[in-house]
């Protein structure tokens, strides 16, 4: 008994290695840069989701990227409500799986948004173990997240970062040990490997090490630094890609999805 009754990742993307684009939402209500219009937030998200789908991306993640500085764990009700409204609109307009990431590390709210909106997966920055971050020490709550998913009765895949970006592990923690904990003890449905910060390239050596430490059925995704130059190599070695910065205007996270950049990335994979 593995603790996984279903392979939720492969149910979302049967027989393929998905390439998923990130929607960096405009600032949400209550955040320091909130612009005062949920219509503007929703409409931009819908436009960007349309661009991703037009270029045959395989999935979309809705993320409150512009809400910095982030709450370390639990976001306020207005953030949950806003993300549910936008996520539901994106799900309704999408023919591909939609995911939710509630920054910095609110897995419970991400699950709640997914349950309310019909999203199929969530991303959790610290699912098991602890990491030192600019929000302080973040500790995983896999025990709560898995139980909440069962209580809600939703088939939502959990993609968990391993030694997440913008963070430092406690002394003595290795990539291999963190990966094994996330898979075997945290029961994540897939693992995400990143570089040191947003847009930073993921080290190929790290991918090789993590793959060797885990059973072959464990999905490993690349979650930062994917570009048209590196996408093909990463997709050969990994089980999926999450692309944010490379799809944005100027190649900068938060700049807004650029159709030409999405097209270039997809063409680099021979999928156009």
What can be said about this structure in brief?
By secondary structure, the chain is of the alpha/beta class. The protein is 36% helix and 17% strand. The mean pLDDT is 96.
Q: Fraction of residues in helices?
A: 25-40%
Q: State the domain count.
A: 1
Total helical elements = 9
- Stretches with pLDDT under 50, minimum 5 residues: none
CATH architecture classification name: Alpha-Beta Barrel
Could you tell me the strand content as a percent range? 15-25%
Helix/strand-derived category reads: alpha/beta
**What's the CATH first level?**
Alpha Beta
The CATH homologous superfamily corresponds to: Aldolase class I
Radius of gyration: 17 Å
Protein described:
- The chain has one domain (17-268): TIM Barrel (Alpha-Beta Barrel), CATH 3.20.20.70.
- Helix content is 36%, strand content 17%.
- It has helices at 8-12, 38-54, 77-92, 107-117, 142-152, 175-185, 204-213, 231-237, 259-268, and strands at residues 19-24, 59-63, 98-101, 121-124, 130-133, 136-139, 157-161, 167-168, 190-193, 220-222, 240-243.
- The chain has an eight-stranded parallel β-barrel with strand order 1-2-3-4-7-9-10-11, surrounded by six helices.
- A hairpin with a 2-residue loop joins strand 5 (130-133) and strand 6.
- The longest helix has 17 residues, at 38-54.
- The radius of gyration is 17 Å and the shape is globular.
- The termini are far apart.
